[in-house]
Amino acid sequence: MSLTFRDLTCLPLIRRWLRSNLPPDEDLELDAELVCCELVTNAVEHGGGVGAVRIDITGDEKVRVEVDDNDPRGVLTVGRSRLGPYRGRGLAIVDSVARWGVRRTIIGKTVWAILR
Fold this sequence. Notes:
globular, five-stranded antiparallel β-sheet, 116 residues, alpha+beta, Heat Shock Protein 90, 3 helices
């Protein structure tokens, strides 16, 4: 299942989309919303804006979230942001609820997270 985005106005739509496609588990829904919205926000603010978000529910009920962006050079640094001293905590939050990483592509990168 996937959804494309262009800017941060997509976040309410992404939240509704997640709730309609995830198993009915409030903790899982909240964690997935948090992770998705943070990764999409990073893609918009640091990765060129346009991208896609995907979710996959594995057989053992784990949820994999993937967010694509158009910046192959971007480096994700937990706790630091080029946008100011009061930013940069999002990946630390993602790290607290999911295992995550980055896969480089020819035109950008995919940041993935697996919810615990």
